[in-house]
Amino acid sequence: MRRVYLISIISLLAVVLTGGGGSQVDLRAAPAGKENLEMCITFDDLPVVRVHDRIQRLMITDDIFYTLEEFGVIAAGFVVGDNIEGDLDILESWLDAGHTLGNHTFSHPDLSEVPAELFINDIRKGEEAIEKILVAAKQKKRYFRYPSLHTGNTFNAKEAVADFLEAQDYIVVPVSIDTDDFAYNLQYEKIEQTGDSLKIIQLGNEYIDHIMERLEAAEQLSEDLLGRQVKHILLLHANRINSTFLADLLAEFSALGYKYISLDNALTDPVYSMPDTYIGPKGLSILERLVKTDPDMLPAREK
Ligand SMILES: [Zn+2]
Q1: Which CATH number do you get for residue 197?
Q2: Which residue, of 79, 101, 111, 296, has the fewest CB within 10 Å?
Q3: SS3 labels along the chain
Q4: Which residues are near ligand 1, the ion (C-beta closer than 5 Å)?
């Protein structure tokens, strides 16, 4: 809302400065060096982050679908097998709507804390949980996202899991924009119980600012590392705060000139196949991983 207000003032100034007519400033034009802005929207912890009853889970899904359709977004979602219980129909509705689904393990283990063998078994179990609906929807490709983006804090663990995923033809899906939407969601749920709608609006503004800050940081890293904007992959969760504020977020992205692309399209960006030598406990985006990777291993900076 504050941004819309700001844009209104700038529009007014533009009219004044140009004598009130003729050449108005196109405020929606992409900033210099930021043409071809593309983004894939992804959601983790499907069917829905489990703190709601069935009716709420259906409503959250409907709200998210409504917004995705409104903005013409084909998204990707990553399923936690243990979250499914009676909600297999919610996952089928993602597939029916043309979205892509991937495996996010069965019980969301943290590879920084559990042995690789246990983690691999959990990937298998997660696969079993969604295999039938993927086959029914004729989605042949298998995608995987690491819980918390933790890819292993020892060389052996990282390699064991990566080797397993490769042998199983999994396509690992990193992100370029990591967010703390889960933390804002916890606050949202607490405020929601008090029924204080003003506080919800305030939190919504803070949440949108947070996501836009993360986007700007990712754009800056992309520019600094590669001299261009990557095909961005945004990480969100299928949760309550996004059921309410996703439309505001997408309106912000669209106003910057972003076009929404599918997961397969995003993954054609070579950044997602660059060497990632980071070993450690942090959940990092692909761009943050490149910062930590030996520069000699990276291809020459793109121009
Ligand atoms: Zn997750």
Answers
A1: 3.20.20.370
A2: 296
A3: CHHHHHHHHHHHHHHHHCCCCCCCCCCCCCCCCCCCCEEEEEEEEECCCCCCCHHHHHHHHHHHHHHHHHCCCCCEEEECHHHHCCCHHHHHHHHHCCCEEEECCCCCCCCCCCCHHHHHHHHHHHHHHHHHHHHHCCCCCEEECCHHHCCCCCHHHHHHHHHHHHHCCEEECCCCECCCHHHHHHHHHHHHHHCCHHHHHHHHHHHHHHHHHHHHHHHHHHHHHHCCCCCEEEEEECCHHHHHHHHHHHHHHHHHCCEECCHHHHCCCHHHHCCCCCCCCCCCCHHHHHHHCCHHHCCCCCC
A4: 44-45, 147
